[in-house]
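[Discussion] Sanity-checking designs against the backbone

I'm trying to build intuition for which residues belong where. Below is a structure token string of 305 positions. I'd appreciate it if someone posts a full sequence so I can compare it with mine line by line.
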């Protein structure tokens, strides 16, 4: 019976070759487009899911209500003291890491200079995120402020090999080259990662530089994306409610100014609240801004880039 149906179909196709060609081409193009869209969707929604702790990792952001002529907005760059303050004030926070993403820095090995980006993170970064090390111990690789981690690609670029743990690298920070020691080599960053780096350094070292010292205890100077890991079983809703009060604690003058100007009565929801965004949503949420907001003024919002 099936063979009979196939013969009839082939006979009809042979009688209407032009129409058959158009139908076959149309079906093929449609299937190809569907396959491409499906692959694209799978890739988009796979972002950051390779991290073992991905369901416990969150990016801290500032949610700001509309005030006068300023529309509602969000901010993902924060003051340097925010990370330690969150872990100190919120018992549900297991770990935090701040990220200082630099511009292109000069890196020197054997008198050969390259331009690479050095990213400084808190040591907990390697336990929070599942970036695999080809060599080096994740628990201690960033324990020393003068330690750095290279990706495989950049280890090959700088040394021509990946067996480079213990070797010296000079990085020009501020106005002079500083010596660092390679303590680990990481696999190249997956394409479906929202976080990437070329060279990874210890945040404590950056905090001790001329630029970093200006931000160590400064709540009015931002520029540091901050991520947290919650303890297993911790309620995200409960931690978010606690987190929202931190803004008022560390910006008391801001609250007083808003009350004085009649923009907040002290009982309604505070117009600026820290909140948590799941790591898995970062790539697909285009509404989350990247501006740095340090304080709310009744007439304007201070934005430091």
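Best answer:
Here's mine. Compare freely.
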């Amino acid at each position: 019976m099936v063979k009979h149906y196939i013969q009839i179909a082939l006979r009809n196709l042979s009688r209407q070759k032009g129409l058959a060609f158009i139908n076959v081409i149309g079906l093929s193009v449609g299937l190809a487009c569907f396959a491409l869209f499906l692959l694209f969707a799978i890739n988009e929604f796979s972002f950051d899911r390779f991290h073992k702790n991905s369901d416990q990792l969150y990016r801290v952001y500032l949610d700001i209500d509309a005030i006068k002529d300023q529309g509602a907005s969000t901010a993902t760059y924060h003051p340097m003291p925010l990370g330690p303050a969150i872990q100190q004030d919120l018992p549900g926070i297991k770990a935090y890491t701040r990220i200082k993403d630099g511009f292109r820095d000069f890196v020197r090995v054997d008198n050969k200079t390259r331009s690479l980006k050095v990213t400084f993170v808190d040591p907990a970064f390697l336990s929070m995120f599942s970036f695999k090390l080809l060599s080096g111990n994740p628990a201690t690789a960033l324990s020393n402020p003068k330690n750095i981690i290279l990706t495989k690609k950049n280890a090959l670029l700088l040394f021509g090999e990946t067996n480079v743990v213990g070797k010296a690298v000079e990085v020009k920070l501020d106005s002079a080259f500083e010596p660092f020691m390679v303590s680990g080599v990481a696999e190249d960053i997956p394409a479906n990662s929202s976080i990437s780096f070329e060279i990874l350094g210890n945040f404590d070292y950056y905090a001790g530089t001329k630029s970093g010292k200006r931000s160590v205890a400064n709540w009015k100077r931002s520029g540091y994306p901050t991520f947290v890991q919650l303890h297993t079983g911790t309620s995200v809703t409960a931690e978010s409610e606690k987190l929202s009060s931190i803004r008022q604690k560390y910006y008391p003058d801001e609250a007083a100014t808003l009350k004085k100007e009649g923009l907040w009565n002290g009982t309604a929801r505070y117009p600026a609240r820290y909140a948590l965004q799941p790591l898995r949503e970062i790539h697909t949420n285009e509404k989350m801004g990247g501006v740095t907001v340090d304080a709310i003024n009744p007439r304007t919002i201070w934005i430091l880039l």
